[in-house]
What does this fold into?
Amino acid sequence: MKKTVLITGASRGIGRATAIQFAKRGYNVSINYNNSHDEAQALMKLMIKEGYSCAAFKADISQKEQAQNLVLQTIDHFGSLDIVINNAGIAQSKLFMDITEQDWDNMFDVNVKGIYFILQSALPYMVSNKSGKIINVSSIWGICGASCETHYSASKSAVIGLTKALAKELGPSNITVNCVCPGVIKTDMLNEYSHNDLKDLADRTPLNRLGTPEDVAKVINFLASNDADFITGQVLNIDGGFII
It folds into this structure.
């Protein structure tokens, strides 16, 4: 029986690349999106055309009922749920003194509470099966912090703490929980950066280039594979050495 992976925020960037990687490896892929309807539908059609098993489901994971329905729809459609990739997230650049309470709440609602809602819905199924893999997507800024991104950095630090604690709690149920921390990756989140800014970031990276969504997707796929069965509670930087 094929294994099923649910990927939140899968219509673009890292999520999209991750969905394609899993599809190529023979998984059922549940593509979650919120606002990017056209991108999600285009990805689903592309994957179906290639003969892959997938379906796209709209859900705002910061809303409890929608997150719960996403998990239920995935299980109902594919008959299983083996891997959860908590990738959906938002970012915002603002001076700390300019961050509003709504800015703060929005950041944590999506980046942290969304994971809480998804996993509270998925874990009863996984625990009953005594099997499962969870990979949370944080950021290097969750480790070292980023100027003008305090609320983003704080939310991503929370994801790291959640990962480590949950790995201890779920270990007896044979469920692994790991975290990846992408560095500067060429996604839509970099659109506001100038060419010179991007060049400077690449120059500050020991490998002298920016990362790609595929760089991150390959590591996520490894952590979800049988080769990573004895790896849990780990935080893995995918940053070209940016914060060595």
